[in-house]
Amino acid sequence: MRTTLELPDAVFRRLKAKAALEGISLKQLLADYVNKGLEETPSAPHPRRRSKLPVIKRRGRSIIPNLTAELQSKLQEEDDFAKLSRSFGR
Question: Which residue, 14, 19, 20, 84, could crosslink 29 as a Cys pair with Cβ 3.0–4.6 Å?
Fold first, then answer.
């Protein structure tokens, strides 16, 4: 079967040189590489890269709805204070 591959020039040059060194055609070298890739057993999936940031796992529902009334009122007071400070230009 015929197909067209678009390869970067540098990759094509390396493939062509390798085929020449091994004394085989470029077609045979590519067919060997494809067969080798298809015969490999799939390895375990690569682990996800871990974030460098700390991760805090939570259980159950979202944290926000579980805020206590006291904490909510303190947050509101801080917000009111910030608004008041801005109104006096501080």
Answer: 19
In the DSSP assignment, the letter for residue 24 is S
Rounded Cα–Cα distance for residues 33 and 31 (Å): 5
Residue spans of the domains in the chain: they are 9-39
* Residue 78 CA: distances (Å) to CA of 44, 54, 69, 81, 90: 51, 27, 14, 5, 15
pTM score, whole prediction: 0.45
Q: Mean pLDDT across the chain, nearest whole number? A: 80
Considering only the C-alpha atoms of the chain, give the largest distance between any 2 of them, rounded to a whole number of Å. Answer: 84
Instruction: Give the start-end residues of each E strand in the chain.
Output: none
28-62 pLDDT per residue, tens: 999 999 999 888 877 767 677 777 777 667 666 55
First-residue to last-residue Cα distance in the chain: 77
C-alpha 86: how far from chain center: 42
